[in-house]
Amino acid sequence: FIGFPVGAAIAYTLGKTGGPNSTVALIAQRQHVAHHGVTTGAYREVLGNPHVRTDLYATIWVTLISVALVVLVSWAIALYLRLTNNWLSRVVSALSVIPLFIPVVIASYAILTFYAATGFMKTLAYHLGWHSFPTLGYTLTAVVIGEIWVNVPFGVLMMSSGLNSVPNALIEAARDAGASLPRTVRSVLLPMNVIPTVIVATFTGIYVLGSFTVPYLTGPSAPNLLGVSMQQFFGSFNQPQQAEVMAMIVFVLAAGIGTIYVWANVRAAKRASSTT
User: Fold this and answer.
1) C-alpha distances in angstroms, 221 versus 51, 58, 138, 226?
2) CA atoms of 1 and 24, how far apart (whole Å)
């Protein structure tokens, strides 16, 4: 159910239009056919398209910025929940997971309601005398906001799980030895929470790379993420071969991120086996 379609898609991007690709090849436009062997014409066309390259750069930058901000926000919330135990921390804990129960479509329209040209923030700023408040709706900034909204709950849950597994005795020992709170976080909590941090970063990166709903509803017409460009090439331009080439590019990028996750887990396993 997974391997066969992936293999057929790879073959189609290399010009194999027969067999399982024969139906889509009948209706496709601008496709590159390999009569003997394979052809990389579709890859050359896609990567040579300046609009696609712009979308690729936008996808990479939005992914990097979203991952950095999700990790930062998740760490800040999880650390606050780990070090405090009052009514405010319980409220923050409840609010941080609310996006898990809100559909992405509704969240995307909520972002537009707040940040569009006629949205709440623009209107509030206008009534306060700030007439130059930026319009964030239908921009890549709105896409980043949406990706953070969607991924922070998972990040907080993972970070909180990792931080809660750190024994209180280690924290108290560091404080008794004269370590300040920032030094305790840097020397005790951070090293023992590397794997959850890597998991949050890699899963967020893979999700943003392949996301469609958030950039489609909140992003600009151009440039936009490759997930939206794939849909346009497949549905609007009737160029499925080029769309599958973009899918392969996203797959390669996601595989690179997944390699970091595997490397971190292997390294952690080796370190655990060396200490036992």
Assistant:
1) 11, 12, 8, 12
2) 18
CB 240 within 8 A of CB 196: no
Compute the distance between CA of residue 87 and CA of residue 78 in angstroms, rounded to an integer.
15
Taking alpha carbons only, the member of 78, 268, 79, 264 closest to residue 185 is 79
Q: What is the pTM of this model?
A: 0.91
Helix residue spans in 128-193 (DSSP H): 140-164, 168-176, 181-184
Distance CA 188, CA 181 (A): 10
- Nearest-CA neighbor of 142 among 107, 103, 95, 118? 107
The 10s digit of each residue's pLDDT in 31-69 is 999 988 899 999 999 999 999 999 999 999 999 999 999
Within the chain, residue ranges assigned H as helices are 3-13, 22-27, 41-48, 50-83, 87-96, 104-115, 120-127, 140-164, 168-176, 181-184, 194-209, 213-218, 226-231, 240-275
- Closest C-alpha among 11, 54, 64, 39 to residue 257: 64
The answer to whether 216 touches 231, Cβ cutoff 8 Å, is yes
HSE at residue 265, side-chain half, CA atoms within 13 A, is 8
* Residue 220, Cβ density class (10 Å: 0-12 exposed, 13-18 middle, ≥19 buried): middle
Tens digits of per-residue pLDDT, 107-140?
A: 999 999 999 888 899 899 989 988 888 889 899 9
